[in-house]
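Justification of resources, computational component.

The compute hours requested in this renewal are based largely on the per-chain cost of generating structure records like the one below. Each record pairs the submitted sequence with a full structure-token output. That output is archived, and it is also reused by downstream analysis tasks.
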Amino acid sequence: MRFAVQFCVIASCVLLTPAAFAADWTMDRGNPQRTGVAVEQLPDRLQLVWKFKADAGFEVGAAIAKGIVYAGTRRGHMYAIDMDASRTLWRGRVLRGGLASTPLIDNGRLYATDQRGGIYCQDIATTRTFWTVRTGAEMHSSPVIVRGRLLIGSYDQTLYGLDPASGEPVWKALTQGPVHCGAAIDDGLAFVAGCDHILRAIGLTSGTQAWELNMESYAAATPAIADGVLYVGHFGGAVIAVDLATHKIRWEYKPEQDPQKEPKPFYASCAVTRDRVVVGSRDGKVHCIDRASGKRVWEFATRADVDASPVIAGRRVYAPSNDGTLYALDLDTGEKIWEYVTGAPISASPAISGGRLVVGDRDGNLYCFGAKEKP
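The structure output for this chain reads:
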């Protein structure tokens, strides 16, 4: 059930107490509701502050806590990088495969998964491994901790509620298909949109299913929740808004597509503000939807699939594409404000903290953008 984790400490001294940042980005999508919205704004035209070259590509997003960036590669290395100095503090290796989801930082610990079904927990200061456990299949679900439960999904058709201190299972919620997405949290319930076409609401304390909804297609995206409404895209080529009080679909958004062709899936997760829902699609576009009506506000065309989940800061959308470009778009109009061409596909979602945006590409480059001189 357990497997070894080996760590190589590169820095002789790990300093994890830089000046306090405006807000940390400690998990996938930035918060347990998975809205993908930062609490701070970024400069209109970002500058490249630093670029870091890793041993392999970045396919998942980074976490940021107290000025330290935690990012894992598809070869299985986890890096801790000082965001101000771009200095590698340590590098750890998970021996059973590449990192499969955005890591979680909670209470001085790092939680991460690998592509062969392993979950591990380590001390972010000393790199000491507290525990490692394995599920029955690969994992791409990004972990979250709420009310003393570490929630994570597996391709063994299970959402696990683990004890964060020991890794021991407290409960297991069975589904009828792989759980690719991370859990979104609202009002004591964890929500997962599965590969079995079912959106499930599961109690945090007991792991008992409260209710379910047939989405009519399977989903890989992590749901986003705001004001009692859940938003998720699926492989049927639609984004749905689900009222969590009535358990019914409020609206369904489908882009205009050739009816003779299969609809293009929404693999990415939604970013949700007070009035907008923004999401990327494998039709190569970033879609902005009116949150109240479900009607299209604008579309922005890139040159490849948009599998990375966009993030929002202020009235700016930051959307990477597999065309190798990070785009900054106006949330109101969809106008392109700025772009940066990396030359390699970007499937990882950006992370925002301390006036900086961090994102990796599939060639193993990790980029930090912001103002050259921090305010």
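Residues 100 and 235 are 20 Å apart (CA to CA). The domain at 5-370 is CATH 2.130.10.10 (Methylamine Dehydrogenase; Chain H).
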